[in-house]
Amino acid sequence: MYFWSDIFHKKYIDTIKFETYSNAIILPVYINNKKYNFQFDTGASTIISKELFSKLNLSIIDSEQAKDHYGNIGKMDFSMLPKLTIGKTEFTNIKVGILKPIQSFKSCGVKIDGYLGNDVLANGAIQIDIKNKKLLISNSIKSINVKNNDSFDIELDFQKRPFLIVNFMGLNAYERVLFDTGSCNNIYKLEKKTFLGMLENEHIKTNNIIDTLESLNKGSGIFGKQNDDENYYVNFDSIKVTGVKFYNFPAHTFNSGGSSILGAEFLTLGKVSIDYKNKKIYFNQYKNKKNRFIL
Description:
Elements: E1 2-3, E2 13-17, E3 19-21, E4 24-31, E5 34-40, E6 47-49, H1 50-55, E7 60-67, E8 73-86, E9 89-99, E10 114-116, E11 125-129, E12 134-138, E13 151-153, E14 155-156, E15 162-168, E16 173-180, E17 188-191, H2 192-200, E18 209-214, E19 220-221, E20 224-225, E21 230-241, E22 244-254, E23 261-263, E24 270-275, E25 280-285
Parallel strand pairs: 1-9, 5-10, 6-9, 16-23, 17-22
Antiparallel strand pairs: 2-12, 3-4, 4-5, 4-8, 6-10, 7-8, 8-9, 11-12, 11-24, 13-25, 14-15, 15-16, 15-21, 17-23, 18-21, 19-20, 21-22, 24-25
């Protein structure tokens, strides 16, 4: 077993096998030698369930207002988790939020005990290989095979959430989006205010709007339901992200008051590597995946 805080003086890499459900990455996490299911969520910080908080007999150390996926605001309590283990790597003294996780996979017999965010891994680098169901974690990007791929800049916010640029080809336009593995159902969720701005600037034409969707089956965030009543299914002729051009690229609008999202479905197109230390992202497209989406 290796302590994460002690491995930065040598080459280190760990491979963790995971399961997927609707593109959600479910990692085995060990606390006090007991296995729990954590969803890997690059759009969040690390969170444990209220049930697990009570079971571990932890104490609340802080509270603050937080916002969920759909812009709903609620109170989040925080605690200090002494240790958790992923693969053969131990992480210590982790500040964790305490909330009730959304149980989206009950029908699969899977209970979510928490969310693993970027904050735990943010001193190193990771590679997500959803095709082979492997997460690599390392103290340096040099230990991960990205030699034949170009790197692209990302921004990290205070939660270490990664933001990257999507370029709209032929429109001389771009957008800063959140790469969010916790958003499982869509490849690209376009913030409503961005969509309306693009419509006004004629970056989106009426023939790019494939359908108007009434939110009869609204999504849920940690603090409440999706608020917007009408959304749009949009098709972009072409976009460029992580240096790769994609054609007939689909997007669904939503309203959160935040940023647009590149979701977990993007991982089905190739391996994604994030170098948190140097604020870079790499993309290695799977060989059998085409760049053109079929409407």
